[in-house]
Sequence to fold (521 residues):
Amino acid sequence: MERSHPPSSSPPPRSAARNHIRNPARTREPGGRRRTHDREGPIRPMSTTTAPERAQPPQGSTSPAPARRNSPGRVIFSSLIGTTVEYYDFYIYATAAVLVFPSLFFPHQSGITGLLASFAVFGVAFIARPLGSVIFGHLGDRLGRKNTLVLALLLMGGGTFLIGCLPTALTPGWEVAAPTILVLLRFAQGMALAGEWSGAVLLATENAPVGKRALYGSVPQQGAPAGFIVANGLFLIITSQMAPESFETWGWRVPFWGSAILVFVGLWTRMKLLESESFTRVQESGKVAKVPALEVLRRSWKTVIIGTIAAVSNYVTFYFLTTFTLTYGTTAATEDAARAAAEKTGKAFDAASFVPGLGFSRSEFLLLMIGAVLLLVVGNVVGAVLAERWGRRKAMIGFHVVVAAFGLAVPWLLRGSDGEVFFALALGFFVFGLIFGPLGALLSELFPANTRYTGSALSYNIASILGAAVAPFIFIWLWGITGDIRLVGLYVAGAAVLSIIALLFVQEHTSTQDLAERIHD
Fold:
């Protein structure tokens, strides 16, 4: 139908024509409905109601209303608080393993031998993690993510609290029982840790908006710097406010008891969660795996191997930065200084086992580490954003090349002055964040929804044995061979190269693909 204009002796001005287009003339239909002239074409009715954000089912339809979803804030906080507790618990043990446990639980060992015994108990937790992956993966893939995360948090926090209550081997009658129970509690912690990280990552990635899965998946990774700062900050405050004798007697227990507060906050938050859409769809489809571990081994065993090796460098780099550097940094720089420190504490000095460190006090070095670990927060975000833009595999390969370069440069970076040590630690934490931030999205995208908890947990936690359980031993052994850290840095670089090889075989998944749609029959 042609557009008609009111009769006029002259054409309308240009401004009027423009206004006619921008503000179409409105008329009324019978019944009061407004009508508007379209720019081209016939007059059409214009509704007086506001369109809903989502299309609603027709009146009388039996289609269900859209399912409720967790709010982004609740997802972020719930995934973060759990991993914060997880890393807090592990950090306080790692710190105590260096500072006091050799003398409290292994008093008959001296020097580097006692330190190795203390780290042996530290490694027990990693040996427990594959078993924890199977148990918590089974629960997570069959009963749901929410309930499994609550159970993992309870077991982790309970084990930590009980370590704080445990008598030491210096207590009469506890010479054997104390280290034995310590091993059992560490084993329980390791099982819980296996369920916690994987569940927290799935909570974040399965609730992430389209195109932001790597960024959401980096949120649980921020528990690493958060737990580190809280744990070591608390140790720093306690050691600065009490005499060394008091700290060894009871002060070291306070951080272990403090875990109960974080666990309470985490439980309160997680009890309010809704189940993820991915698991809900698995239930609705009737394709819940009867034995998820067997299903993973039958269908996805190659993927587990690839994911495991891809994650090894994360563990090696992480424990180099958080555990070995603390040992190396607080070891006396000269034999005379080491002998004087041993005499001051009444311990025997073994010159044959002495290897020089940097000579910092533990409070000085912890303070440097707390400042430097803030760069891990930045690295996590940068790594996740770039992995979202470039793709997981390409970004992770490039980041591991940077890690390898850092490992080779470690002997020239980690030197004696405060500024040099802080720069080396800050650079190391940032580089580690690049590979750690996208790891959650990478592993969660490798497996279908009905075995995702078990598959990602197995990959991540088997890597803990290869990359973390043995790392403290290898670091100290390599350090003792040469008396410096050249071989230690080479070990970090070699682990990065190994992960690069595995990443070459990773099947890339787009960031826009719906995780809930991938379900094995």
Notes: Residues 72-274+290-509 form a domain with the Growth Hormone; Chain: A; fold (CATH 1.20.1250.20). The mean pLDDT is 82.
